[in-house]
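Sanity check

After download, print the first record. It should look like this:
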Amino acid sequence: MEKFSKPEVKTQDTQDTYKSYLTRVSDNLFTDPDHPERGPRSRSIVYVPYRGFSEQLQRDCPGITFTDYNSPEVVEAVSAADVIVNIARGEEVVEAEIGHPDRNVKLPPESLANTEMVGDLYLQAIETGNTDVQVVHTGRMNNKTIAMATAMPILAEAAGLNEEDVIHTPDAQIRRLVENNHIDIKELMDSVDTDPKMQAMQVGVRALRRIYKARGVDSDTASSSELTNALLDEYEKYPRISTSTLMKEQMLQNVAEKLRSEGKSEKEINEVVGKLDE
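Expected structure tokens:
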């Protein structure tokens, strides 16, 4: 079940796009990815749209049960569910929190909406007696961030840091470390390319070259300072905490607040949240 945030008013083109999207999703859900040539799989899918649904949409996706959040279909689904999946809907890289350079990601409204619904579904599940249900948070890595993640060993080498310490170091400090180390990025890349003992770093160099290409920087002709600045600029836009971690934190907070609003004791709240945090 996934909660979609949609605008109140839609143009016909937008409605058609949304309908086409759901139809494709429906087809994919019933297709066996390992054997697409086989017929549709038998699956029970309950879909709870964020802002309602049309009768036409129900007819277009006959294999999916469209329903409201408080419907018997939802109660039945969560009472028997083994896992509830919280799906990320993107991320926004922002200025890192003071004292927490690794926390530079903000969840968009769509991810917050999904997280709110998953917390409610979890509480609904345990109320039916399904106390063994688990929640899995799935973040999605943007393709644009994969290169920077792979090039992290190069940045760590340039800054004189252990790779695992990079994301916990403020951006301004990383810039100072790189400048003070006087490491020529171009020479570093060349030395890694020609050293058979540095195969792990060679993957990072290839990723770094992809970064430069995407930014329109010629790694063969650019100066060392240009290469360094391009790498540091790319890193500043790199999400250093996963959306799955943020969604889990947000859900734990949501569940605790909901239970508190229902008059539950702190002991009861801690028991539920503790089990959910396992």
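If your output differs, re-run the checksum step. Summary of this record's structure: The beta strands are 45-47, 64-66, 83-87, 92-93, 105-106, 134-138.
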